[in-house]
C-alpha cells in the first residue's frame, strides 16, 4: 500500500528541514514538487524519482502525488516552508476525497514568518497575523480588509508574496493601508532568500518600507507599536520585566 | 569566544527539530531551558551541561545564557516550538544590550500553529492570526480586541495558552467574542501534546468549542468561513480550482 507524505521543506535546503521530514524523504520513492524546491534536495537524495510541473500547475502536481500513492508508491509531495501555510496540504486533502482512500500524512516545516523573524532577531514575539499580498486566489478587497484590521489590532504582521511580476505596487498599497492606523516610524524588516546563500535582511521604518521595492523571494515584517531595533536586531517585546530585582 | 544559539525545538522531541538546530545543540557545551524541554533532548545529548530555572524565571535563564556565552562557553538556549513565537529570542536580545557584545544567533523551529495545523490536516492554509490567551504579560482587553478584529477579518486563528490553572474560562470568553461575528458552525480543531506520544486531536464546531475544556498543552484552531471537514481532516481551502479541465 502506498502512502503520501506532504512535506514542508522549511527555509532553504536540507539543513532547515526537520528530522521527521528528512526521514520521510529518505523513505519515499517518488518526490513531487515545484522544480526550484526539488533542486534544493536533489543532491542529498540522488536516487529518487522526481516529478514536477511548472508554476500554476499545482493541482496537477497534487493529483499525480495522490494517484501514484494509490498505485502503491511511497510518495513525497514537497513544499517550501510549511506545507500548511499557502502550501499544498489543503488542496491535496481536498482532492483526495475524489479518490479511493489513501494514507496521507502532513509533516510541517518552518514557515517563512518564523524563519525570517529569526533572521531579524525576534520580529514576531507577540500576537501576529500572516497575510499574503497575492490576489491570484484572493480578492484584493479582502486582503485590504485584513491588512486594515490587523493594523487596528496592533498585530505584528508577516507579509507573504509582497510582490509579483504583474503587480509591483502591492507592498506600497499595503503600507498605505497600514499607515492609516500605524505610526510612520513603526519598525519593519525585510528578509530575502531566507536560509539560502544569498540571504539578505534590512530593518527600516514603515514610511520607508512603503517606497522600497521587493521581489517575490522576500518576506516582509511589520512590527507592532512596541517593536524596536536593538543593535542589528528587530525585536518585539512581550512584556517581561528585564530588571534583576 | 563564546556564542549563544537561541534554538526552537519544534513540536515534541528531537525528530521535530531542524537539522540546523540539532547541529547547534551538538556543538554547544551548555544547554539552558525550562526543565520539561531539557528532558526532551537529554537522552540524545547526555554529555552536555544543563541549566534550568522553573516557570516564571525566564529572565534569569536568559541572563545565565548570555553570561555564560560571555565567559566563553558555547551556549544553547532551548525553547519549545519556535524561539520567536512567545519564546525567548526577544527577551534575550533585549537583555544582551546591557552586556558587552556577544555573538547571538536565532534558529527557528516549527511553532505549534504549524505543527498542530498539520496534525489537523490543513487548518491554516489561508491568512491567519496567532493569539495567546494568556493575560500574564498582556492586558485581557487587548486580547479581546485582537480576537474581535481577527474574527471580523475572517482570519483563521491559532490560539496559544488557551487555558491556565488560574483562569479556566479564557477559551469560553474567547469563543463568545468570536461568536459575535462568526457562525456557530465554523469548523474548529484542538490538538493536544503535539508531536508527543500522547498526541490527540478533535474537530468540532465553534459552538461546541465554547463549552470544551482544554488544558495548557493544547493549541486551538478556529477555521475561517470557508474551512471544512474533509473526512478526518480540517481543511481551509485557498481558492484553487480542483477540476481536471
UniProtKB/TrEMBL annotation, chains A, B:
InterPro entries: 4pyrrol_Mease, 4pyrrol_Methylase_sf, 4pyrrole_Mease_sub1, 4pyrrole_Mease_sub2, Cbl_synth_CobJ/CibH_dom, Precorrin_MeTrfase. It is an enzyme of class 2 (transferase). GO terms for molecular function: precorrin-3B C17-methyltransferase activity. Residues 3-209 form the Tetrapyrrole methylase domain. Its EC number is 2.1.1.131. PANTHER family: COBALT-FACTOR III C(17)-METHYLTRANSFERASE-RELATED. This is Precorrin-3B C(17)-methyltransferase. It comes from Massiliimalia timonensis.
